[in-house]
């Protein structure tokens, strides 16, 4: 893949993740309500600029959303024009197709502040993020070889480092789940999610243990993104315990992936396995 296109794909994924974190912060502060009556305008000069700090948060969120949308769209167009790998093009196209519905849901979160709409908005954002993240993961995939397990140690280490952060900051469990804590929780969660997805995708050698590492990491990624979606509804009670238990489960799956990588998924084992086949 062309280096310029690879950077565009990476920028699309990074911007989408940042936009999601900014959206969580905006919702948690209630800033979206400052512009509720004049969407798509705001409450400042000519309806185009913010009048106070709260409306600035909402205004800035909209600005980043617009930039991100155009970047994702532009990346998709460039990927198709340059004939990028089919799976990269399809992942980007899927994300782009969902952009109009996400814009509508974004408007509804401002004009009709209901948790069902907020959940749908974040859920759709998660699907879009998964698409651009998968495109970036494929774009930056290391060359195949007997050292496949070694090359996933870094993304797996990222997930390992961030999951304890998610546990400590679990919604309404151990600390006050204010706007800054929520933003940090979702930033850690989305980054860990990408690390687990990359681990699952990049384990491509032929040994059985490596395939199992991929399955375990993929399951952990599914748990993490589910926690992030459900986290929009956690206020205490049962969902609070589900959130904590789910994070512990994800940590256990990551520990299992590390065990498999260190025991049966070494480069030497992969080479032996491929020769025996």
How would you characterize this protein structure?
The chain has about 280 residues and is an all-alpha fold. The chain folds into two domains: about 1-140, no CATH class; about 145-275, Four Helix Bundle (Hemerythrin (Met), subunit A), CATH 1.20.120. Helix content is about 75%, strand content about 0%. The protein contains eleven helices and no strands. Helix 7 (about 155-170) packs antiparallel against helix 8 (about 180-200) and helix 9 packs antiparallel against helix 10 (about 235-265). The chain is flat. Residues about 265-275 have low confidence and may be disordered.
Defining key terms:
0% strand, 277 residues, flat, Four Helix Bundle (Hemerythrin (Met), subunit A), disordered C terminus, mainly alpha, 2 domains
Query: Radius of gyration from the CA trace?
Result: 20 Å
Q: Please tell me what the overall shape is.
A: flat
Total number of strands:
0
Low-confidence residue ranges = 266-277
Could you say how many structural domains there are in total? 2
What distance lies between the first and last C-alpha atoms, to the nearest angstrom?
31 Å
The biggest beta sheet reads:
none
| Secondary-structure element pattern, one letter each | HHHHHHHHHHH
- Whole-number average pLDDT? 85
Fraction in helix? over 70%
Assembly state (oligomeric) = single chain
How many helix segments? 11
């Amino acid at each position: 893949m062309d280096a310029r296109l690879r950077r565009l794909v990476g920028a699309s994924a990074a911007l989408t993740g940042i936009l999601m974190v900014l959206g969580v912060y905006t919702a948690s502060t209630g800033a979206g309500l400052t512009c509720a009556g004049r969407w798509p305008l705001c409450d400042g000069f000519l309806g185009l600029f913010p009048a106070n700090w709260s409306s600035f948060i909402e205004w800035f969120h909209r600005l980043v959303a617009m930039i991100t949308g155009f970047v994702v769209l532009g990346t998709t167009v460039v990927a198709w024009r340059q004939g990028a790998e089919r799976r990269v093009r399809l992942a980007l196209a899927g994300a782009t197709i969902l952009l109009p519905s996400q814009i509508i849901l974004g408007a509804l979160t401002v004009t009709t502040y209901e948790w069902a709409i907020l959940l749908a908005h974040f859920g759709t954002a998660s699907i879009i993020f998964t698409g651009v993240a998968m495109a970036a993961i494929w774009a930056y995939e290391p060359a195949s070889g007997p050292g496949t397990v070694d090359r996933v140690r870094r993304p797996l280490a990222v997930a390992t480092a961030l999951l304890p952060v998610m546990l400590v900051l679990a919604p309404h469990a151990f600390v006050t789940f204010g706007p800054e804590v929520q933003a940090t929780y979702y930033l850690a969660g989305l980054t860990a999610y990408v690390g687990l997805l990359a681990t699952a995708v990049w384990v491509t050698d032929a040994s059985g243990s490596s395939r199992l590492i991929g399955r375990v990491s993929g399951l952990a990624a599914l748990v993490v993104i589910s926690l992030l979606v459900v986290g929009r509804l956690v206020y205490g009670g049962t969902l609070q315990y589900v959130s904590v238990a789910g994070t512990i489960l994800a940590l256990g799956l990551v520990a299992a992936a590390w065990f498999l990588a260190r025991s049966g998924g070494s480069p030497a084992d992969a080479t032996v396995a491929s020769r025996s086949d």
